[in-house]
């Protein structure tokens, strides 16, 4: 079980001091997958070859938008790469599988807003933060940047990202249970898990 540190109600020092970019390093590669309604996005645990539903894949590169922090930038969503511009409609998606090639900070966002409104609640999944040594699940209630509106749970995940290799990950936010893991089978190889006592509806990933 990964070690975790819950700084509920206040941002952690590591979050305040860390340096990272949205979407990882400059020219980091992402491959995302989703399925149409009525089918699964990935194989079952014991039947990896038998998928149901149509899987849509896309590959894109994320730019370096500077050193941004969810807990310090009020209009945070203005700097996030919108996957929908690459032909993937992720409205209402609460589970996502993807591959990322990055030295660190392969980060993803789930929001209560479907139009980029940063005043709405936001979840951020950080994979390979703190110099590729830790990962984290963050929640921000609004854009006030007050400590009482922020929560973070941190997990030890040394060397989880790799600069020159696509690595597979998944994230999930269902009924207040937030998880992320390695591979393309959701629920397997969990690296982080946190239950939000007051979850919000995810409208866009």
UniProtKB/TrEMBL annotation:
Residues 31-40 have a biased composition (Basic residues). Pfam families: Methyltransf_FA. Residues 41-50 have a biased composition (Basic and acidic residues). Residues 1-50 are annotated as: Disordered. Residues 94-203 form the Farnesoic acid O-methyl transferase domain. This is Farnesoic acid O-methyl transferase domain-containing protein. The lineage of its organism: Eukaryota, Metazoa, Spiralia, Lophotrochozoa, Mollusca.
């Amino acid at each position: 079980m990964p070690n975790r540190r819950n700084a509920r109600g206040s941002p952690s020092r590591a979050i305040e001091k860390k340096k990272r970019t949205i979407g990882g390093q400059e020219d980091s590669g992402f491959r995302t997958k989703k399925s149409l309604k009525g089918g699964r996005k990935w194989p079952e645990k014991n039947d990896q070859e038998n998928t149901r539903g149509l899987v849509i894949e896309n590959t894109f590169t994320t730019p370096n938008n500077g050193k941004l922090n969810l807990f310090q930038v009020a209009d945070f969503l203005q700097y996030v790469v919108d996957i929908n511009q690459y032909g993937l409609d992720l409205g209402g998606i609460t589970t996502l599988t993807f591959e990322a090639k990055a030295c660190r900070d392969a980060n993803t966002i789930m929001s209560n807003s479907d139009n980029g409104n940063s005043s709405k609640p936001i979840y951020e999944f950080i994979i390979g933060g703190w110099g590729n040594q830790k990962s984290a699940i963050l929640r921000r209630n609004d854009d006030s940047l007050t400590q009482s509106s922020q929560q973070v749970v941190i997990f030890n995940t040394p060397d989880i990202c790799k600069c020159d290799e696509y690595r597979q990950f998944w994230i999930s936010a269902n009924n207040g249970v937030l998880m992320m893991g390695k591979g393309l089978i959701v629920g397997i190889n969990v690296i982080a898990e946190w239950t939000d006592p007051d979850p919000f509806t995810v409208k866009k990933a």
